[in-house]
Write a sequence for this structure.
């Protein structure tokens, strides 16, 4: 059968594996998943759903040798748009994040470590957006992370559908392509509309307090660099740090409280994402530590409860 | 507790309109009444928008994946008079104010009745069929959490603190943190477009 997409047929050989190699097979599929976006150009439409939200989006993605250009357009409600080049946001309808740390790609190049925290398995095949897909199950080995089901295009490895499932088997989030075509992308389709705004200047803060750290982390999570930044001109800087185990991510934010910045302990859940805030007192003031991420609330609570000043910090 | 009143409380809880007292009532009732718990589950399924997944191949995961996309029955401790929803985002969030000690204190109070049924292990195995593992684990760790919050380790039962709605600044901050976290995650190739979609969903309607 001639592949209509003009890709090599080598990928089809990957299907002829014995059941005993399922775990290694799953690792191979995850590697293909992380490489797929660099190798194929495509356009399509997908839905995203979590408790309290359902949205539809269109995407045009060009992989052009070295440069990856991608335009994302929300298809319902306001026409929010993003354009990314090599993963970095060029313009966006709304964007607030600062410098980034590519934790996930580092870990996906080390699939053995992923196997330490998750049990990986190929479940079978099915069909998504009218493409044959292979289903990979990613099950946590402990209670500190969630489970995933990843549906990958059998020919290209592209992620076409992702389900995030909690420890009780409840679905927290669905991402799913409804329409997908592999083809070259015309320049006009990568041109941002008026809703895509140039990014503002990042405000670099003064060196904020960086010597409070979580005393406990779930096993397998490593932290990236600490970023210190003020969200606006007249506010003290917030320090933030991202942690990841290769699949799950959470961010820890730490900032001083004040007369006009009051807060107490809090826990909130937005679909798959939990936010836990904890008020901390130290000799030189009151601070707020907040853990935000797609991890079970109990793990986030435990991380937030474990905050402590570094031993070397002067009191 | 008459069952119609409980059914009403259950509906209110599902619509995030239950008050504090109703929530506790429902929680206690569901502990003892499996029929009520069944009703809860049926309500959830009735409002679900998902369907069971099927795929070719010999593995059937239907037992492992719920058919419904359902909210956690979180406690809501808000002062109704002073905490109107301030933003679309906040309306969609399930809130547990002053969660660390207040929620744990209330849940510990509820769970203590059944403590003998639930093995209090520090870490539950992933496939232990405990009905509400998160509560049990929380209860087992409640000593540390309560101590951390009150800064008086070793104290036993804490008095239940008055729940407070988050300040306007804090609400805004949480929204900001959620966006930053999602947008940060969206810069990378794995898992591809999912973090972008999460970030987009936070731009609440």
């Amino acid at each position: 059968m001639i592949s209509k997409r003009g890709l090599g047929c080598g990928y089809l050989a990957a299907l002829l594996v014995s059941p005993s190699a399922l775990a290694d097979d799953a690792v191979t599929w995850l590697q293909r998943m992380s490489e797929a976006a660099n190798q194929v150009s495509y356009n399509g439409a997908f839905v995203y759903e979590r408790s309290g939200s359902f949205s539809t989006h269109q995407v045009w993605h060009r992989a052009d040798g070295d440069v990856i250009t991608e335009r994302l357009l929300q298809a319902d409600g306001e026409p929010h748009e993003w354009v990314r080049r090599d993963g970095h946001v060029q313009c966006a309808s709304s964007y607030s994040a600062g410098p980034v740390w590519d934790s996930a790609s580092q870990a996906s190049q080390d699939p053995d470590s992923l196997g330490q925290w998750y049990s990986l398995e190929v479940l079978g095949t099915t069909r998504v957006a009218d493409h044959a897909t292979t289903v990979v199950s990613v099950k946590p080995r402990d209670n500190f992370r969630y489970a995933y089901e990843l549906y990958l295009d059998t020919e290209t490895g592209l992620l076409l559908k992702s389900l995030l499932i909690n420890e009780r088997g409840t679905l927290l989030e669905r991402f799913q392509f409804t329409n997908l075509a592999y083809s070259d992308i015309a320049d006009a389709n990568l041109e941002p509309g008026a809703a895509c705004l140039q990014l503002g200047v990042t405000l670099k803060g003064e060196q904020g307090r960086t010597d409070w750290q979580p005393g406990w982390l779930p096993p397998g999570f490593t932290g990236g660099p600490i970023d210190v930044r003020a969200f606006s001109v007249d506010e003290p800087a917030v320090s933030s740090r991202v942690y990841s185990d290769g699949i799950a991510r959470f961010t820890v934010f730490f900032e001083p409280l004040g007369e006009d910045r009051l807060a107490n302990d809090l826990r909130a859940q937005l679909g798959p994402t939990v936010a836990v805030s904890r008020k901390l007192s130290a000799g030189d003031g009151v601070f707020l530590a907040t853990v935000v991420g797609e991890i079970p609330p109990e793990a986030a609570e435990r991380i937030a409860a474990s905050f402590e000043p570094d031993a070397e910090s002067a009191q | 507790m008459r069952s119609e009143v409980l059914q009403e409380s259950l509906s209110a809880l599902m619509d995030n309109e239950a008050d504090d007292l109703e929530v506790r009532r429902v929680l206690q009732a569901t502990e003892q009444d499996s029929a009520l718990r069944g009703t809860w589950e049926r309500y959830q399924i009735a409002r679900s928008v998902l369907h069971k997944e099927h795929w070719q191949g010999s593995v059937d995961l239907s037992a492992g994946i719920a058919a419904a996309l359902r909210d956690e029955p979180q406690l809501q401790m808000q002062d109704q008079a002073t905490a109107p929803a301030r933003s679309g985002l906040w309306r969609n969030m399930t809130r547990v104010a002053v969660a660390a000690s207040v929620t744990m204190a209330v849940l510990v109070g509820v769970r203590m009745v059944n403590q003998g049924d639930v093995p209090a292990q520090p870490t539950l195995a992933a496939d232990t069929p405990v009905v509400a593992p998160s509560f049990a684990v929380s209860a087992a760790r409640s000593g540390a959490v309560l101590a951390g919050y009150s800064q008086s380790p070793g104290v036993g039962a804490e008095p239940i603190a008055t729940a407070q709605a988050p300040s306007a600044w804090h609400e805004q901050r949480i929204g900001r943190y959620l966006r930053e976290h999602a947008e940060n995650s969206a810069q990378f190739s794995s898992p591809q477009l999912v973090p972008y979609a999460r970030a987009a969903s936070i731009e609440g309607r």
